[in-house]
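thought: fold this chain, then report.
action: predict
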Amino acid sequence: MQKRNWLAFILIGFITVSCSTLTAQPQVTETPVVETDPHPFENEQFGFTIPAGWGLTISSGDYYGFGLEKMVVIHDAPLLADSKAFFTVATAALTSGESLAEHFKLAYQDAVPEIEEQVESQFERNGLSGLEITYKRPWGEPWWKFQDIWLEKDSVVYLLSFHASPFTFEDHLVTLDLILDSFHFKDPVE
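observation:
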């Protein structure tokens, strides 16, 4: 009789620990529907075109230690786990008196893991302007190549971040252009 009580107690403990571990994970919602044509993604603040064949994951959590909250990730395969190229939009409110340039500089200043081969420039496209940086950083094997575009609207920073393996990064630039050409901010609803 005592063995059953111990077994039940251990089983309840295991289930409790398993459930608490699962609930501590960031919220991720995958939509594994594969669209054969490009299709729009829209939320209250912005919109852009998702390329044909790309998957969508609504996500939350800090984006690579930049202090920005992930909003949406699209990826070159229907499921995030099967993907090799990613486009993420992450946001954060600017603190009082802080500029986009200051926020941008601080994000990369003490990046962990460190970044290499960074090239910074101004970003201008379709009426949007901001800052752009390309770089490589280790994130498992191999190092990944990133292209980050920083925009600001109504005291909110928007990071449009694309990354892929350095071996396939150039192959995805036409797709990235499609996404960036379609990115737009929505006007506030009156």
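thought: worth noting. The chain has a mean pLDDT of 83.
final: tokens above.
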